[in-house]
Write a structure and sequence with these properties.
Distance between the termini of chain A: 182 Å
Largest sheet of chain A: 9 strands, mixed
Radius of gyration of chain A: 48 Å
Strand order of the largest sheet of chain A: 5-4-7-8-3-9-10-11-12
CATH architecture of chain B: 3-Layer(aba) Sandwich
Number of domains of chain A: 2
Shape of chain A: rod-shaped
Helix content of chain A: 25-40%
Helix content of chain B: 25-40%
Strand content of chain A: 15-25%
Largest interface: A-B, 25 and 33 residues
Number of domains of chain B: 1
CATH topology of chain B: Glutaredoxin
CATH superfamily of the largest domain in chain A: P-loop containing nucleotide triphosphate hydrolases
CATH topology of the largest domain in chain A: Rossmann fold
CATH architecture of the largest domain in chain A: 3-Layer(aba) Sandwich
Structural class of chain B: alpha+beta
CATH superfamily of chain B: Glutaredoxin
Number of strands of chain A: 25
Shape of chain B: globular
Oligomer: heterodimer
Number of helices of chain A: 14
Strand order of the largest sheet of chain B: 1-3-2-4-5
Largest sheet of chain B: 5 strands, mixed
CATH class of chain B: Alpha Beta
Order of helices and strands of chain B: EEHEHEEH
Chain lengths: 573, 103
């Protein structure tokens, strides 16, 4: 029986994957290979299921046959129980992958008459292991022996021997134990099984139950020490690692449109980063869902699948309502690009919600996920729980490079704080839609609180919902402050009138000027006339004088010629 | 399955007492149990009993069939009702009381 194991101890602790979703991640590979592990917890915590999954998944996924030694349920009961998870134990038994042995101890049938040991159990187990070449063993719940046999001293010694023997056999064993009052197990099994101890708990807070798993100890291995929520559903157990330990997700610098061109323009012209998380928060009725629907619509138009989780409205309701603002979601749904998943938050615990999202995302493979609104989740968990859930969700989606958009309702009274489940620090972009109440009307203002890694507008825009869709309008920033709604429209009208008036005034002045110009020009012309006539006059006198002079000269010459014969005429005339 | 003890003498063929003792090889418990039951039988029901001693090591499949856990185990098959006694049978008074012997 005893086999030398000195040769295998040098290497690092080897682990056996359980095949249970998430568990192998938090333990860095599964349960310690070739060693016994203890799994304890109260009634209905899921111990048996966990163990059975370990065996069945081991047989199916890792080709490691397993032995189920049950002290509680009969083999047939067990078969029925796991059939609901889609496992066919009967077939596995036939294929020699699983061996089930039901151990029944009844104190009333047995009388103790002296020294004994549990060799019968050892032989049974040994026989089972050897028959199918088992690598995994499950003992559920071995403590039942304590109610069947009264000699505790013998039992304890035998259990210690059993665990050593199992270790020597090199089988990976999982032992279940009912939680005691102040101890992990009623009979203190943790004393014997010291390699790995898991604790399962089932807590009900506010009528909603959460299952939690904790690795109490894991000798020779690093492991997550937190309480990890886990779920049991039709596919068995899934443990959700709270967060991946590092923040080393790959990032994309690709941009995706928000579906509203004017909003894109506010985000340096091209929208959000792919794979980022976006929060739209606002008071009631500010159009958060409309923005979300636009985003979904834009995603579908790019032929990218979109998964829409609605916690308030039914799919039909959303489709109808969005039609009123000009979005046809039905078309996308029919094309298989959009899936609207509606459920009341109170339907299930937060963890189950998270798992549903996980599963649907894995199934549907969307590029965009919308959660509308996350605020409702608070009804089923405290703020911190919701936050932790959202962290995990964002984390998961970022790894998958899925863009996620949340909407959150802000209550009017504390619009100074404006923090929403504390997720605002987690998201990459945060858009706030809020009511601006003035002049007896409510209008919507939209602004970008933050948008990591891009230039974004710091302006408040007015957000208008019309029959044809959403529009962002520049608000009027005038001497009277920000004007929105009808006040803005009035102001805009005023401006138009002003312009009209001014142009009118201008043309009038022009005409006056023109007229003046004509008058002046006329004056100039007449003056010139005057000047010309004066000049003419002047010229005329000039000419006359010249003429007179010339004539006189002529006359003198004539007179000279006449008096040549007689000089006496010279001095006359 | 090696038989020990005496094949009965009784009137209609079979012996009045039929026992099966499951042991595990030559462990001290097993040897003590064999000795004790033989002594009791020889003292109180000489010639009226049949005792099978089974070494479970030799037939491990039996362990599951017979729901064996604690060993040694003595099963009193006859007379009815069937009774099971575990241990090395050193608590003689208790054994006799359960087997309805020695009164």
């Amino acid at each position: 029986m005893a086999r030398s194991n000195s040769d295998k101890m040098v290497r690092q602790l080897e682990k056996k994957p359980t095949g249970i979703v998430g568990f192998d991640e938090i333990t860095g590979g599964g349960l310690p290979a070739g060693r016994p592990s203890l799994i304890c917890g109260g009634a209905g915590a899921g111990k048996t299921l966990f163990s059975i999954e370990f065996i069945i998944r081991g047989a199916l996924q890792y080709k490691e046959p397993g032995v189920i030694l049950t002290f509680e349920e009969k083999a047939t009961d067990l078969e029925t129980n796991v059939a609901s998870l889609g496992f066919n134990l009967k077939k596995l038994q036939k294929d020699k992958l699983v061996w089930i042995d039901h151990i029944h101890v009844d104190r009333s049938e047995i009388a103790e008459t002296g020294e004994y040991d549990l060799d019968g159990l050892f032989i049974r187990l040994g026989y089972a292991i050897d028959s199918i070449g088992a690598k995994r063993v499950m003992l559920d719940t071995i403590e039942n022996l304590f109610s069947g046999l009264s000699n505790e001293g013998i039992l304890r010694a035998e259990l210690r021997r059993l665990f050593t023997w199992l270790k020597d056999k090199g089988v990976t064993t999982i032992i279940t134990g009912e939680k005691g009052i102040n101890t992990l197990t009623r009979q203190g099994l943790e004393e014997y099984v010291s390699d790995c101890v898991l604790l399962l708990e089932h807590r009900v807070i506010n009528q909603i139950s959460t299952r939690l798993l904790r690795v109490v100890k894991y000798r020779g291995s690093v492991h997550g020490t937190n309480e990890y929520p886990f779920l049991i559903d039709e596919q068995g157990i899934s443990v959700l690692p709270v967060t991946s330990l590092r923040l080393d997700n790959e990032v994309s610098s690709q941009r995706v449109s928000s579906g509203i061109p004017t909003l894109d323009a506010m985000l340096s012209g091209s929208g959000f980063f792919r794979g980022s998380s976006i929060l739209i928060s606002g008071t009631a009725g500010t159009g958060k869902t409309s923005i979300a629907a636009y985003f979904a619509d834009a995603s579908c138009k790019r032929k990218e699948r979109c998964l829409y989780f609605a916690f308030e409205e039914s799919p039909r309701q959303i489709v109808r309502n969005m039609k009123s603002i000009g979005i046809d979601l039905q078309k996308h749904e029919d094309a298989g690009l959009l899936k609207i998943q509606s459920s009341r938050p109170t339907l299930q615990g937060l963890e189950l919600h998270l798992l549903t999202i996980h599963k649907l995302v894995k199934q549907f493979k969307p590029r965009t996920v919308i959660l509308d609104p996350i605020t409702n989740l608070v009804t089923i968990g405290s703020m911190s729980e919701v936050k932790s859930m959202l962290i995990r969700l964002i984390d998961f989606l970022q790894v998958e490079k899925i863009t996620v958009l949340f909407t959150a309702l802000v209550y009017e009274k504390d619009n100074t704080v404006q923090t929403d489940e504390g997720v605002s620090s987690l998201v990459d972009a945060w858009i706030l839609v809020r009511d601006i109440e003035a002049n007896g009307e409510r209008n919507r203002g939209i602004y970008i609180m933050k948008s990591r890694g891009m230039q974004h507008s710091n302006r408040v825009r007015e957000f208008v919902i019309t029959d044809t869709g959403l529009e962002l309008v520049d608000v009027y920033l005038g001497p009277k402050g920000i004007l929105v709604g009808s006040a803005r429209e009035a102001e805009q009208l005023n401006e138009v009138t002003g312009v009209e008036l001014r142009t009118h005034a201008l043309s009038f002045k022009d005409r006056v000027l023109e007229r003046k110009k004509t008058v002046l020009e006329a004056k100039i012309a007449s003056l010139r006339e005057e000047f010309e006539s004066m000049q003419d006059d002047l010229n005329k006198t000039f000419r006359e004088e010249e003429l007179t002079n010339a004539i006189m000269e002529k006359n003198r010459q004539q007179a000279g010629n006449k008096s040549k014969p007689g000089k006496s005429n010279y001095g006359k005339s | 399955m090696h038989k020990k003890g005496l094949a009965g003498n009784t009137d209609k063929g079979g012996p009045a007492f039929v026992f099966t003792l499951y042991v595990t090889g030559n462990t001290p418990n097993s040897i003590r149990a064999i000795n004790n039951i033989q002594e009791i039988c020889e003292t109180y029901i000489t010639g009226q009993y049949k005792l099978d001693v089974v070494d479970v090591y030799q037939q491990p499949a039996l362990a599951q069939q017979e729901q064996l856990i604690a060993l040694p185990l003595l099963v009193k098959k006859l007379p009815l009702p069937e009774r099971k006694l575990i241990g090395d049978l050193s608590d003689k008074e208790k054994v006799l009381k359960i087997l309805n012997l020695g009164l």
